[in-house]
Amino acid sequence: MNAPLRHPEACPALVLNADYQPLSYYPLSLWSWQDAIKAVFMDRVDIVHEYDQFVHSPSFQMRLPSVVALKTYISHEREPAFTRFNVFLRDHFQCQYCGSPDDLTFDHVIPRSRGGKTTWQNVATACSPCNLKKGGRMLRDSGMTLAHKPQRPTVHMLHKNGRSFPPNYLHESWQDYLYWDIELEP
Fold first, then answer.
1. H or E element: which one contains 178?
2. 150 sits in which H/E element
C-alpha cells in the first residue's frame, strides 16, 4: 500500500547534531525540505531517514529527507542566553505565583525601582494579573510567594524542560531521536 502523498511543505527534516541528538527540543530543530536538500548537496549532512515522498527535476529524482545528521558537531553554548523565551522555558511557561500559563510576562523579584537587576536570579515568569498585583513591592510586602526560586539554568535544564512541550507534528521516523511519550503521525 502506498503512503499518502504529502505536499513537500508538510515534510520538514529533523536536524540532528553529529552525535545524533537534536540540536534543540524547544523549538524543535527542523529544516524545510528545501534547506535539507541544499545541505545534502553541499555535503554538510548525512541522510538518516527519508519520507516516501519524492521531489523531481527534469533530470533528477530524490526522496525527501525526514532526518538528517550534521557531519560536523556543533557544540552547545555553555550558558544559555538570557532571553524572555528562555526565562519562560526555565519556568515551564507558567506564572511562578499562581501557575497560570496565560498572558505571561516577567517580573523582577526585587523591583528595578528598588535596585533589582535583570538577571536569571532576579527574574521570574509572571502572568499579567500577578505582575500587576505585586507591582513595585518587595516579595515579602506583596503577600505573594514564588513556586520556585529563580536560578540560572543550564543548557541541559532548558533542553529537558523543552521536552515537556512536544510540537504539533512528529513524524514516525523521528521516534528514535526524540523523547516524548505521545502518539506519532505516520
1. none
2. none
pLDDT tens column, 2-30 = 455 567 778 999 999 999 988 887 778 89
Long-range contacts of 19-23 (CB under 8 A, 24+ apart): 19/73, 20/48, 20/69, 20/177, 21/177, 22/177, 22/178, 23/70, 23/74
Residue 118 CB-half CA count within 13 A: 6
Q: What is the pTM of this model?
A: 0.66
Q: Is 90 exposed, middle or buried (0-12, 13-18, 19+ CB in 10 A)?
A: buried
- Specify the pLDDT at position 155: 84
pLDDT at 163: 76
Q: Which residue ranges in the chain fall short of pLDDT 50?
A: 1-2, 181-186
Cα 62 vs. chain centroid, distance in angstroms? 29
Tell me the C-alpha distance between 139 and 130, whole Å. 12
CB 22 within 8 A of CB 29: yes
How many other C-beta atoms can be found within 10 angstroms of the C-beta atom of residue 26?
19
d(CA 109, CA 87): 13
